[in-house]
Amino acid sequence: GISPDALDEEIYAKALRVAASNRHGTSGPAVVVTDSDLRIVAWNDGARTIYGYTQVEMLGKSLAKIPSKVLSSDRSLEEVAKAPWQDKCLQITCNQETRHSKHIETILTLSRFYMDGILAGYTVACKEIKETSAPRESKPMMR
Q1: Percent of the chain clearing pLDDT 70 (strictly above)
Q2: What distance in Å separates the CA atoms of residue 36 and residue 11, rounded to the nearest whole number?
Q3: Whole-angstrom distance, CA of residue 110 vs CA of residue 15
Q4: Could you give phi then psi for residue 72, rounded to 5 degrees?
Q5: Does residue 116 contact residue 132 with C-beta atoms inside 8 Å?
Q6: E runs forming strands in the chain
Q7: Is 115 helix (H, G, I), strand (E, B) or coil?
Q8: Cα 107 to the chain's mean position, in Å?
């Protein structure tokens, strides 16, 4: 994995390029980069604004520190990230909980990035849609 205090500049730059190229204009100011084990290696000011945690507090922590429920399934964000998926990126709507126990609905763009053909990590670009009262029950997504 990537050590947060010695984050390879090349890996970080590539992760941010992947996040930017997969954004499709829907994901917002929060960008979180994890290693292949979903440990946070980068946390920008947008993520601090949305979730209430500083970069210092989040570096090296598991992405699971932010409780997340994917609305189209009963799975956590971590389970979705680790499951096989073919697309370049996934657009996911989640119920998440912030530092101050505020429940929010977010749109996430989840991307994988690779170094030398090996999974190096994930980028999560996030935009808050609205505040919710509490996690709602997930409904099957209609297509």
Answers
A1: 73
A2: 12
A3: 11
A4: -85, 0
A5: no
A6: 30-35, 40-43, 68-70, 89-97, 103-115, 118-132
A7: strand
A8: 10
